[in-house]
Design goal:
Helices cover 39% and strands 13% of the residues. With 177 residues, the protein is α+β, with helices and mostly antiparallel strands.
Length: 177
């Protein structure tokens, strides 16, 4: 068959064919750009600004109420600064995760009493950041103030450094024997 014959055969075969109607769908143009993580960017800027400004000094934290701290009357502020900076080695610890208020109060009282009896000077109490609690607020953190302040064994306490638990833990300085 020649080209002319092929074209004529194709024309006869397609004689009754009509083109399809155009689809009602709109073709997508370019894919949508990825969403902009605006909150993540704001958080990163805030972290950067805080890292440049540096953390609050112990005195500023005491004055602003940002940090859970306590210093027994008659004890020098220098003691609290030293505690915050890791002058005393953490000798024992208590983790309150998973405990309710009653259990935690009993554990804290027993732990502080036993640590003082053993002659320990510095202990850590992990109360958690409250991420698993209602309203995502630390419940036990506020209770620790009421549990530790009246105890004779406690000279001072402050928020632990980031490596020791940060805002989810306290360093407690006990009286020497």
């Amino acid at each position: 068959m020649s080209d002319a014959e092929d074209r004529e055969a194709l024309r006869r075969a397609l004689a009754g064919v009509k083109p399809l109607a155009k689809p009602r769908r709109h073709l997508l143009r370019d894919p949508a750009p990825p969403p902009v993580p605006a909150q993540t960017r704001r958080d990163e800027r805030a972290v950067l600004a805080e890292s440049v400004a540096g953390p609050l000094s112990v005195d500023d934290a005491l004055d602003s109420g940002v940090e859970l701290t306590y210093l027994r009357d008659g004890v020098s502020r220098q003691v609290l600064r030293r505690l915050r900076r890791g002058h005393w080695v953490v000798q024992d610890g208590l983790d309150l995760h998973g405990m309710n208020r009653v259990e935690a109060a009993q554990q804290v009282a027993e732990f502080v009493r036993a640590a003082a009896a053993r002659g320990l000077r510095c202990v850590r109490i992990v109360h958690g950041k409250g991420l698993g609690s209602k309203n995502r607020e630390p419940v036990l953190k506020g209770k620790l103030r009421a549990w530790l302040m009246p105890r004779d064994e406690v000279l001072a306490y402050c928020q632990a450094p980031a490596a020791e638990g940060g805002s989810g833990a306290l360093l407690v300085l006990l009286k020497p024997r």
